[in-house]
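COURSE: Structural Biology Practicum
ASSIGNMENT: Worksheet 4, Part C
STUDENT ID: 0417
INSTRUCTIONS: Below are two proteins. For each, the amino acid sequence is given first, followed by its structure token string. Answer the questions at the end about the second protein only.

PROTEIN I
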Amino acid sequence: MEWIANFFNADTHSGIARRTALTAYGIRVFSAGIAYIAQIFLARWLGSHHYGVYVMVWTWVLILGHISTLGLSVIPELFIPTYTQRGENGLLRGYTFYARLMTFLSAAIVGVLGIAGVYMLGDALDSYYVWPFYLAFVCLPFFTITETLDGISRCYNAAVTAMGPPYVLRPLLIIVFMAAGHYLELIPATAPGAMIAALAACIVTAALQLAMVSRLLAKHIPKIPYRFEQKIWLLAALPLFFAEAARVLLQNVDILVLSRYVLPENLAVYFAASKTLALALFVNFAVAAAVSHRFTEYHVTGDGPRLKHFIAQASLWSFAATMLAIVLVILLGQGFLFLFGPGFTAGFPLLFIFSIGVIIRSMIGPADRLLALLGHQKLLAGIVALALLFATLLLFLLVPFYGLMGAAAAMSGAMVLETALLIFFIRRKLNLTVGFWHYNKHRLA
């Protein structure tokens, strides 16, 4: 049909964004499947106790890995489109080199400090956490650099280069290395064994993606002398560093708080339920990957009508795809959880509570990126920090009495608060409206 051909083949910015969003979402769905299978295998191989320990330690990798980018993984969407529009190729080369080097070095420093911290804690840390944490901190710089490589690649609509290695290859390699080590009796079926497999996977993934991004940049940026504006980059990244730190803590604070009140076995059930909902959570990420750099482009060129249209369009895509994903997750969730083991089906009611927050947040699409890229990074950091504080308070209030259900309710509540704050401040500071219900109002002729 003609409209289908136009949908996929149009060379307009909307057409490119649709294809990028679908590619990004396809990769994330495919990677979610691989990651989900990896978690199932790990849960089966390790047992609920060691799997719960692995979940706790890997959560710290996620948190410290995102924070260690210093915000430089987010600002490619600010500087790369700007420098490209102005033809400032020296600054393009300088920024892309500086961002990669600094994120790796900062994560390496955090890793060394982390190893020293675990050693100094001694007997204060449960013995089954010690070696997994040591391995996690060695893994940290290799995990972290892929975050920045992802951000750079998305600015060139290279969704496969951006997301293929970290979201497809890495979980696949964890399965392969763990399976080979398990059946060859080289890697024990314990939390330290799982971290050994994760470390090997992170090293291979980082090396491959670095080569792919270097080749991508060589095709788009002439080889001219580097120019550096480190002060400008770091000042721009600093608010986003705090926003990203608050964001990653907001996404994982439930695991941290639960670990204080529940056994690793129960933590494993909660984590399995949250992973089952990953299909819906990835929608907003895919849309943001496709359109965020366009926000900067339209803002720089002063194209207000197209900016408003893209905002509404991104919200519509996010909400529609999230609703479809939620329905599928609810219908198939019981069976998926059973794959982890019979005891994991106890997490099925959590899916309904998680879904409330995810649906409401999807109504405004990548609104947080809009606020960050149009000059209000500090405000975004404050919004996310407020949502984090709200979630943390709710977690400490609800988890002691309602356990896993209380944790899920706290996280959904934080999503609702964040959505309301984004709508209010984007309207007040940018005089722009976000939400899928504004699509017809801002639709281009």
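PROTEIN II
(use this one for the questions)
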Amino acid sequence: SGSASSRNWRNTSSSNSIQISASDFISYLKSRTLIKTAQNLEEISQTNLNRQAVLFSSSLTIDDSNKAIFNNRSLVILVNGNLNISVNGSFLPENSNLAFLINGALAFSPSTAQAKGIFLANSVNTGATSNQGLKIIGNLIAQNSFINSRQWADSSRPSLYCF
């Protein structure tokens, strides 16, 4: 109900035409910083990677067998493919700062209840559940499509919670 300015300036039409995709951001980082290329997640611990960007040229899966690799690390993980987080319970790496830029799809298994990190992907699928939400400690960004098929039996609880 108030004025936009003392002279009542306002924009009657506006559009945001600039959007940086995951692939654009990966290209930008490649041109501006040193990026370590890796073939599999085990290379992170084998070469003790920390405080840098790591590029994977194919799809990845984080599961119970390899989730501890991310403990005590600060990494930007660039994935030229899909990322599947298939952890029973929580993916909460200790003492970590992680950002995942996925030039593809990010999928959470229905058994994953929590995940920590910044997640940017072309598409995001939180998985389908009948009585389990998903809590993201960080941020979750879907560039093109977002599918959330999680539910709780108590409909007053959020199916997706980010903080």
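ANSWER KEY EXCERPT:
Q1: DSSP finds two helices and ten strands in the chain.
Q2: The radius of gyration is 19 Å.
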